[in-house]
Every structure is written in C-alpha cells, then in structure tokens.
Write a structure and sequence with these properties.
By secondary structure, the chain is an all-alpha fold. It has 3 domains: 82 residues; 126 residues, no CATH class; 311 residues, no CATH class. It contains 25 helices and 3 strands. Strands 1-3-2 form a 3-stranded mixed sheet. A hairpin with a 3-residue loop joins strand 2 and strand 3. It is globular and about 75 Å long.
Length: 606
Amino acid sequence: MRRRLLALLTLAPSLALCSTPPSPASVRPTEDYVPAEISGLTGPRSSELRELVERFVSDRDELERFYDVKGSALQTRRLREFYAAWTGRLAAMPYEGLGTEGRVDWILLSRYIEYQQGLLDRRDAKSLERAPLVPFAEDIARLQEDRRGMQPVDPQAAAATLNRIAKQVGDLQAALQAGLRETGSKEGKDAPAVHPLTTTRVIAYRAVTDLSDLRESLEDWYKFYDGYDPAFSWWVRSSHDSLNEALDGYVKFMREKLVGFEKGKDDPIVGDPIGRAGLEAELRHELIAYSPEELLAIANHEFAWCDAELRKASREMGLGDDWKAAMERVKQDHLAPGSQPGLVRDLALEAIRFVEDRDLVTIPPLAADFWRIKMMGPAQQKVAPFFLGGPDILVAFPTSAMDYDDKLQSLRANNIHFARATVFHELVPGHHLQYYYEERYNPQRQLFTTPFWVEGWSVWWEFQFWDLGFPRSPEDRLGMLFWRAHRCARIIFSLNFHMGNWTPEQCIDFLVDRVGHERASAAGEVRRSFIGTYPPMYQAGYMLGALQLRELHRELVVPGGMTNRQFHDAILKGGPMPIELVRARLKGAKPPKDFKPAWRFADAGP
C-alpha cells in the first residue's frame, strides 16, 4: 500500500488541470479505505475492563448533566459520593486475575478517580478564597438545583431572592471601591464610607470566571419559567432584569478596576497558580518520579544542547555564534499573504513520504488522506499564534483585519522553516495520526488522555526527524531548534509561574530572550498556558513526554528487540496514558495494584 500511495503522488501532477497536484484522497480508490481483513477486527478486546471504563464515563457524564451548576455544594457532594463508591467497587475487584491490559485500565481508572477527588479539594479551596466576592453563589445554584429536583417554584420568593442578591451585589461593589481607596487608588474617591473589602488580582479574576458560569445557570433557570408560567413572569421578570444590570456593572468593575482589562487593548494575562503542592499532585497523577526542581534541571540540560546546536547552525550561515541574528534571517523567509495553505499541503505530504520511506509507523490510508486545512482568525491567534492540530490542521497566518504590526509578527512567526518543523507535529505522524488510532483502538482510554502522551508523541517525532536528517539546511535546523528550545522553555516558565516565582510578564520576556519569539507570539503562548484551557502540567508535557519516549526507544528498539514500526504502532494502539504505564505495557509486565512511579527516564542525558 505504501508503494501504491507513492505512485499516486508521483502521477498526480499529470492528472491535474494545473500545476498543483490533487489531494491523494481524490485519486485513491475508495476500497483502499476499507480494512483488508475485516475478520481481524472481530477478535477479543485488548482489555477486560474496557466496558467498565466506558460505563464509568457514561454514568459520570449523566451525573454532571443533572447537577450542572459548576462548583456548587450539591454538585461537589454528589461527585464525592460517586467517586467514593467507585473506589470501593474497584477495590473489591479480583485484581490478580487481570492481564496486563486489564491491570493498566484498573490502575488508570483508580488513579483518575483519585485525581478527580483531589481536583474537587483544590476547587473547594479556591472557592473559599473567592467567596467574599461571590457570597450569593449558593443562592443562585439553589434556584437551578431546585428546578432540577422538580421542586415547584414560588415566584414571589424567587423574586425576593433576586432582589436580595442585587442589593448584595451593590454593597459588594461599594465595599471593593472603599478597599481601592484604602490601598491608594483614586477609584471611588467621593464614594460614601462603607466597610472596605480588599482582594487580589488573581482572586478577582477567579470571581469573574465563576460569575460567568453562575449567570449561565441563572439564565437557564429563568428561561425555563419565563413566559410559560404567568405568575412567575409577573413576579420575577423585573427583579431578574435588575439583578442582571447589577451583575453587569459588578463584573465590569472587577474586570477593569481589579483585574486590569482595558477597552481596545489585549486582555491581560492573569492566570491562577496552583502552588508547589498542586504541582506535586499533578506529577503524581502523571506518574512522574521527579520533583519540580529536578524537572527544571532537566529542561536546562536540554536547553544547553539546543544552545550548542543553534550556534553551530548560525556559524554555517556565516553569522558566527550570533544565533539571534541567524534566527532573524530565518524569520524573513516567509510566504506572501494567501500562500500558506499550499505550503502546509506540500509539507504534510512530504512528511508522510518521509515516514513511509523509512517504515517508521503504520499510516492507514484514511489517516494519510483525510485531513483538512482551516485558517485561524485574529482572535484565535491571540492564544494560538502558530499551528494547532488534531483531526485537522489550523493555520495561523496574517489576516486583513489585523493591525500592521500584528501582520508582520504573524508573518515572521510562521515562516517557512518554522512551519516545516511543525506541520508533521500537527498532522502525520503527529496528532492527526493519534486521533485516528485513539478512536479505533482502546477508545475507552481517551478518558486518561495526558499531555505527556499526546504532546510528547508529536515532539518525539521532532526528535526522530532531526536524527534521521529531515532538516536540509542550517535554516531548517534553526526552525526545528526554535521549537525544541521552546519545549524546554515551556517547562521552565510554566513551573516557575505555578510555584509563584514568575509573573506572566516575566514568562513572556523569557520566551523572547531565550527562544527568539516575536513578542506577540510569546504573549499568545503565555496567554494560552494560563487562561485555564489547559491543565497546569500541559506545557511541560511536550518535552518531558518526548524524553520519556526517547528513553523507552533506547530500551526497546535500539538493542534490536522491536522495529520502529512495531514500537510506534504498539504505543498508538495502546491509547493515551502516562508513559510509565506505556513502558509497562510494551515490556509485557503485570503492574502491581499499588503501582507507583519510579522511572528515571532523563538521567542518561541526550
């Protein structure tokens, strides 16, 4: 099949009406997309606990659909009871009778439940800190939860509750204004004297976020009755509108005066550090047998390798050891507006050929052909200044709506050599190939997804492409080294931020100085890291996951026990999980019930 695809790619230009070859999907026979041996897909499942994990996910999702007020006392109590019951059921299972795959699923599910219980503890602690700013949270939650429990609504009592909350919101805003006067701000200078309330920028940011969720619940409750129940509308509509107006003003006040949002400017990067104890809990969950300080040392060790290679490439370009000057020259090598999709197409097909020529991993025809290119708008590029990938590839490139300076920075940040080093990360053999396998092999393990497996896999391919001679010039090597240094930097700035050592602004400065980022792209990377979309260890998972796979490759492939294809196929078919459990699977071990991380995967060096 590999030779057939290469032949199609070779013949494609002669079939096209223009010089651009058609997509392989348009010339490959449809029958090639159907598995050759259907009977091979009907055998026993790889894990005895697949249905158990799927049942857990379905039942947990049902619980959260019903108790849908995020962070409410009732939702938290029900989830705690649910997780405790599952923990008891799992403990009673006959573990010793399970095979390797069943044991892996048992460990993954029990650790997942333990982690979720810890997240509830963390959420409760953060809610207590922001409670003085949103003391009415449970009152709003109770309205929705009484409806979910099919309790009849008392319209007059509901109106009274909304009126009371509206007055409370006004009092809170006045108290915070008094607190600003007390801390030296001129805001509220002539306001009447009230008992002052002070807070931090982070807690105010958290309150704004939580209020957004609470207001969604409030609106869902209100719209259920309004217009349907005449008595409800008669009593509640005016009170509801008054509360909404009060909340609009309160949120605006906190955003502008406490968090620092300014009209016409990019949103400030605030984030919510989890502290050292939080990082240690994340590392336990990811089965990483290192402390945060040891991980910082690993990142700096890898950074030193990048620095040496950057200087080597710079010298080949005739710029001595000034790798920043060399990086500046590389950034000038970009395409004209409108040309980037063609480059992405060509780079994606080149990467597929590169992998298939070396027989590195199985690329089924559907995975090879069925990916799409989408362009990102200006707003999305504020948090994703480069490519994103998975089922499709999302391309960052200047748009007509951008300011002049933003256009230039986007052109430079998405130059040809940076792109050549990352298109395959997003598509094949990177994330797109992962998505293909995740949906077809051990799909229950999507619950256990981890950046160390997801992102580590794609960065591992960056390692492989480097070692196998993919970069054709010193400029190409600089493009790959930019990303490799960036992965080191992600460990350093994210851990330092969460331990309270660095501010977001210091993280941006670090990316500009040590990696060579444009300031706009550095701000986008830091914003993406800390706005709450990704878990705290996500950025560290790129490089650390790749280092784990590199060491595992040394253990299993370099000595000759497995081929590259066998190694990579086995990882993909196993599904997402911490890499130390991937190691146990590939070695055919039967991990004990009290499995604990012990693997020192980075002590040997590059």
